[in-house]
Amino acid sequence: MTRAWILPTLMVICGSLVAAGPITRGSPVLGVVILLAFLLLALVNSPLIFPGSIGAVEAQRRSESDGRPIVYWRPGCQYCLRLRMSLGRRARRLHWVNIWRDPDGAAAVRAVNDGNETVPTVFVAGRPFTNPDPAWVREQLSPSA
Asked: Which of 3, 5, 34, 102 is the most exposed place for a label (fewest CB within 10 A)?
């Protein structure tokens, strides 16, 4: 779990250090703007931006009953973030599995990606799709899902 917070923590630390320069030189507004930019980057790269993750076994069980796709992801993944941001509110209509928190999820991803933990891997009706186009994923969401 701690490795999911390494990048956001580094961004906060770096932002604080970079912002300290303008602040000490008499430009507090510039320092605050820089710090806010780094805080925004830290938030976007943190696990907080993603819907609550569940385990792979639970996601498969739920997907079988409600037909919703399953997204296997990990914090810090640029492609996962792109998918998440492009889905907007619709992201809550998918089941999200953080492969860094769930060994079964990591194993499921490795099983369909030649032993690699390539994410996002989206399962739609039991079929895996590695790093699919976000527009395609939106099309897979039924209005009732």
From this structure: 3
Biggest CA–CA distance in the chain, Å, is 60
40 lies in the same domain as 94 = no
Question: The pTM is what?
Answer: 0.72
- Do 61 and 130 sit in the same domain of this protein? yes
Side-chain half-sphere CA neighbours of 67 within 13 A: 6
Give the tens place of pLDDT for each residue, 108-140: 999 999 999 999 999 998 899 999 999 999 888
52/3 Cα distance (integer angstroms) = 17
Alpha-carbon radius of gyration of the chain: 18
Q: Which of 59, 56, 52 is nearest to 111 (CA)?
A: 56
